[in-house]
Amino acid sequence: MDPLACLLGCGAGPTAADIWTGASINVGDVYASLAGDITNGTHHTPGFQHAAHNSRLTARVEQAARTGVRQ
Question: Which residue stretches belong to region Disordered (predicted)?
Answer without folding.
Answer: 47-71
